[in-house]
Specification:
This protein is α/β, with parallel strands linked by helices. It contains 10 helices and 7 strands. Residues 4-10 have low confidence and may be disordered.
Length: 240
């Protein structure tokens, strides 16, 4: 039996993930989620016509909004995946590392809106990109999102203190083993039992593939699933 099919039988977060993967693979996305996805993708296309410059995400990466709209946001199918996963998990406290231009945050916030519960804090190092993301969420009518701007190593401890226990975290910030493992180590003690952490771009480089293996085999992770570009880790319930 495939691992995700077994997960569905176990219940909890693995079951939510299995249901999410099945829904996306069969394109049985609920109409209200398809409507939100269309609006968010329209926002992405609108950003593709904007040539103003902002600070590059990293050296050598796009420095105009139009370029960033092509290079940095998650593809629509993965946005739909995040939205469906948040719908299934029904988290109360959500955390995102790496706001970018706000497309993934919009998908997550739309899910929380549809759930009728929950909040999201999203962290980014650039005030310019965070302002563009905040503008987008406002234009979409999505609330319940807090923006925290500054070096993530500096802003993460405060966000965790205020938002813990974290039920859902999406990590899409600095793409190095040192940074990603550091984020994991910082967040895990503040996660809910059986909370879910999603890591983007896990197959992007050899270093990130190694990083994902390291996280997936950590004793504090009860189940780990590599699903194309994303890795999903379920945090063990370590309550005595």
């Amino acid at each position: 039996m495939p691992r995700l099919a077994r997960a569905r039988r176990r219940g909890g977060a693995p079951a939510a993930l299995a249901q999410t993967a099945s829904t996306i693979a069969r394109y049985r996305i609920p109409p209200e989620e398809r409507e939100w996805a269309a609006r968010i993708e329209a926002r992405k296309r609108e950003l593709g016509s904007r040539e103003e410059r902002a600070r590059p995400f990293e050296d050598g990466l796009p420095d105009t909004v139009a370029q960033a709209s092509l290079w940095t946001p998650i593809p629509s199918v993965w946005g739909a995946f995040l939205m469906r996963l948040v719908r299934e998990l029904r988290p109360h406290s959500c955390l995102e590392l790496g706001t970018g231009i706000g497309i993934s945050a919009a998908y997550e916030a739309a899910a929380l809106e549809l759930n009728g519960d929950g909040g999201l804090v999203t962290l980014d190092g650039s005030a310019e990109w965070a302002a563009i993301a905040e503008e987008g969420l406002s234009s979409l009518g999505l609330g319940g999102v807090e923006f925290s701007v500054g070096p993530i190593a500096d802003t993460l401890p405060d966000a965790l203190q205020r938002y813990a226990p974290v039920d859902y975290a999406f990590v899409d910030a600095e793409h190095t083993e040192e940074a990603t493992v550091g984020y994991f180590e910082s967040i895990v003690p503040h996660m809910s039992p059986r909370g879910v952490m999603v890591f983007d771009d896990i197959p992007w480089t050899r270093e990130l593939r190694q990083t994902w293996r390291r996280i997936a085999h950590d004793e504090r992770v009860s189940a780990a699933f590599a699903l194309g570009r994303m890795g999903v880790a379920v945090i063990a319930d370590r309550r005595a």
